[in-house]
C-alpha cells in the first residue's frame, strides 16, 4: 500500500461527501415535481410524452397501481429488447454482420438489462451490433436506472406523507411522472456532458464497427469501435455496468486513463449518495440522511481497506517465483493496485458491476469483499434507487430490533413500524440468500452447473457463488472465468435476476403504501433516536449480522478455503 | 388489480416506444454527430498514422514480441492483443496454470539477463488484454536487451524510457509502449 494509493481513496471519499448535498437537492426538486432550469428546453418533451401516452402526471397512484404500471413498463421494455436481440441479424447498423442472438441468450440479456443487472454472458465486441448496443441496451440502462430512482421516491413518500390529500386516498406518487422527470432532467442531460468528456478523453463514438491496422511489428490488428461513449456514460451513472466491450471499463476504449477512471467511480456513487440527502429532505430531517450515509461510508471504507491491503500484498505463489510487487494479474498498469481495488469495491457496493480489473484474478480475500458487498444486498451506497430502498429495509429491521431490546414500539422518521412492515422487509431481504445459495448449490451438484467454472478447487466454487450473487443482487460483475453462455446458466441466472429485482421491489412498495397510510407521530422522549453514533453502529451491525452471517458458510467454502490453499502453496 | 392493469397498457407501450426513440436513437446519434465534429481524432479511436498508414491507437495496446522492441505484457485477448476479443486470463491466484505460465515467463526474462525481482506487470496478463502500458520498472528491465539487440548505448535507451514515463495526478506512473517504441525507432537505429 502506498501514500498515493490512500490519497486517491481519501480524495474519492472527500469528493463524494462534497457532492452529496447538491445532487441530493437536485433530486429533491425532481421528487417534489418542481420546475428546474432545464424545463425551458425539455418541458415540452415531458408534456408531449404524457399527452401521447394518455398520462395525467398529477394523479397520485396507490402502491398497487404504482407497482402494476412499473411492472408493465418493464415488461414492455423487456419484450422490445428481446425482439431486437433476436432479430439483430436482419436489422441495420450491424457493420460486423453479427447474427441474431439465440433464444436463451436473448432471454438472459433482456432480463439482465431490464433489471439493472447487466450481467453479460456474451462478449460485446463479438456479439452485439451497434443498433443492439444503442436501441436494445442503452435505453435499458437509462430506464432501469430511472425505475430504481422512481421506486426510491415512492418509498420516501411512504415515510414522508403526513395526511391524505383532500378527497383522495393516500398515494405514493405517479410512476410515469417520476420516471420521465428523472430521465429528462437528470440522466439524459448529465450523460450528454459526460459522454462528451469521455469522447474528448479517447472513448470512441462512431457508427463504424472496427478499424484495421498494421502494427509497428507488421502484424494485423483489428480494433472494435462503435458508439461507445454514449453508452459508457449511462452505464456508469445509472449503475448498470454492462460494457460495450468484453473487458468493460478495463478496455482502454471504455476507460482510457486515470482521470476517466476517477470520474467513472464517482459517477457510480453520485446518485446513490445524493439520494441519502434527498431522503433526509423528504422526511424533513437531513440528519436522517447523513446518518445513513455515515453507516454506508463506514462499511465502504472498511471494504476498500481489506481489498487494497490484500491486493497490494500480492500473490505469495508468484512471489516465490521471483515476482515483486502486488497482484497485477487481471489489472491494468494505468490504474494500478489502488485504483483497481477501489473500483472493485465501488462497483459492488453499488449494484453497478462495471469492472476495471478482473475480479476472478484478485487474491481470495481481496475478491471476497466485492462478493460480500453483493451478498449484503448492495446497500453500501448501492445502485441508483435500489441502494437506498434496500438500506431502508435494513433500517426498518434495525428499529424493530432496537425496539425489542428496550421494549418500545419501534418507529422510524415519525412512522410506527409494525408487524406488517417488518414481515414485508424480512420477505424482501430473505429472497437474496434463498436464491443465491439455492442456485449455487444446484449448480454445484449438476453436470451442467459444474461445466461452468474455469478454475478448479475452491476458486471454481467461488466463481459459481459470485455468479448467482451477482445475478440476484442485480450487480452484473463476474468472476468471469465462469462460462455462463450455456442454457443452464442463461436460464437459471435469468430467473435469478428477475426474482432479485422484482421480489424485492413489490414488498418494498407494499411497505411504502402501508407507511403512507399511517399518521405521522412526532418523536417524543420515548423514541429511539435514529441519528447519531449509536444508531449508525446499530445499522452497521444489522447489515453485517443479517446480511453477512447468512453467507459465512459459503464464504468459508469459497474464498477462505482458497486463501488457505494459496498461502500454503496448494495449487489446483 | 384488473383496473390497474388495463390503465397501464397504453402508457407502458407508448412510453417504451417514445423513450426508445429518444434514448436509443436520438441520443446516441446526436452524440456521434457532436463527437465527430468536436473531437474527430478521439471519436474514431485515437489512431496513429505513420508513412500514410494506420499503425496503432494511442490508447490501445498492441503486441510487441520481438527483442528489438520493448515488449508488452502477456495478453489473454484471443491469441494476444486481439482487438475484437478483449479480456483477462481469469485465472485464480492459486491456479496451477497461472503459476506455470508465470514461471515460464520469469525464466524467459532471466535468460535475457534480468536479475533481481521481476516487476509484476511484466509477467502478468492485464484485465483487457489490450494494456497499452508498462510500469517504468518493467520498461527499465528491458533496457539491457533492447540496447544489446540494437547496438545502442544503454544510457541512451535508458534516457528514452525516462522521457516516456507519464505521471498523471490520479494514476500510476506508466510508459506507453507504442510511444516508447516509436521513439526508439526514431532514434536512428532501425
Structure report:
The complex is a heterodimer of chains A (572) and B (190). Chain A is mostly helical. Chain A has a domain at 25-209 and 223-272. Helix content of chain A is 64%, strand content 3%. Chain A is built from 20 helices and five strands. Chain A has helices at residues 3-32, 39-53, 63-86, 103-114, 124-127, 130-160, 175-201, 228-237, 258-282, 286-313, 316-320, 336-349, 364-375, 386-406, 419-444, 447-450, 457-472, 487-516, 533-549, 552-567, and strands at 210-214, 220-224, 323-324, 411-412, 415-416. In chain A, a hairpin with a 2-residue loop joins strand 4 (411-412) and strand 5. The longest helix of chain A is centred in the first third of the chain and has 31 residues, at 130-160. Chain A is globular, with a radius of gyration of 23 Å. The mean pLDDT of chain A is 95. Chain B is mainly alpha-helical and 190 residues long. Chain B has two domains: 2-43; 47-186, no CATH class. Chain B is 48% helix and 9% strand. Chain B has seven helices and six strands, in the order H-H-E-E-H-E-E-H-H-H-E-E-H. Chain B has helices spanning 2-38, 40-43, 96-111, 136-140, 143-150, 154-164, 177-186; strands at 47-50, 53-57, 118-119, 133-134, 165-166, 174-176. In chain B, the strands form two sheets. Chain B has a three-stranded antiparallel beta sheet. A two-stranded antiparallel sheet of chain B has the order 1-2. In chain B, strand 5 (165-166) and strand 6 form a beta hairpin. In chain B, helix 6 packs across helix 7 (177-186). Chain B is elongated, with a radius of gyration of 24 Å. The relative contact order of chain B is 0.11. At the A-B interface, helix 2, helix 3, helix 6, helix 7 and strand 1 of A face helix 1, strand 2, helix 3, strand 3 and strand 4 of B.
